[in-house]
Amino acid sequence: MNIVPLSPAIGARIDGVNLCEAIDDATRAQLRHALLAHHVLFFENQPVTPEQHRALALGFGPLHIHPIYPQAPGVPEIVVLDNHAD
Predict the structure, then answer these.
(1) Which whole number is the average pLDDT over 54-62?
(2) Is there a contact between 65 and 76 (Cβ–Cβ < 8 Å)?
(3) Which of 34, 47, 57, 69 could form a disulfide linkage to 79, CB 3.0–4.6 angstroms apart?
(4) Is residue 86 assigned to a domain?
(5) What is the DSSP letter of 30?
(6) From CA 41, how far away is CA 6, in angstroms rounded?
């Protein structure tokens, strides 16, 4: 795994992790540490399904269902934020 800080204050890009596969405990611990250090993690080119996203997120703690933001179909714990004009 490679952690690339994106700014001095916030954000890091994570390379070398396939989020489409199950994450082992050591990798999850590294990701948790990176999240605490950088506050926001970016994973490029990861075609994860909402179900895979939920499984990954559950490794960080209990999930919340937001009452207003749009949800992924069938996976209410995942909020859909999209900047594509449709």
Answers:
(1) 91
(2) yes
(3) 69
(4) no
(5) H
(6) 10
Q: Is residue 60 part of a domain?
A: yes
Both tokens assigned to 29: 């611990």
Contact 27, 1 (CB under 8 A): yes
Parent domain of 54: 2-79
Q: How far apart are CA 50 and CA 73, in angstroms?
A: 8
Q: Is 17's pLDDT higher than 70?
A: yes
pTM: 0.80
* pLDDT for residue 82 is more than 90: no
3-state class percentages of the chain: helix first, strand second, coil last, to nearest 5: 25, 20, 55
Q: Which two tokens stand for residue 2?
A: 């490679």
Q: Is 43 helix (H, G, I), strand (E, B) or coil?
A: coil
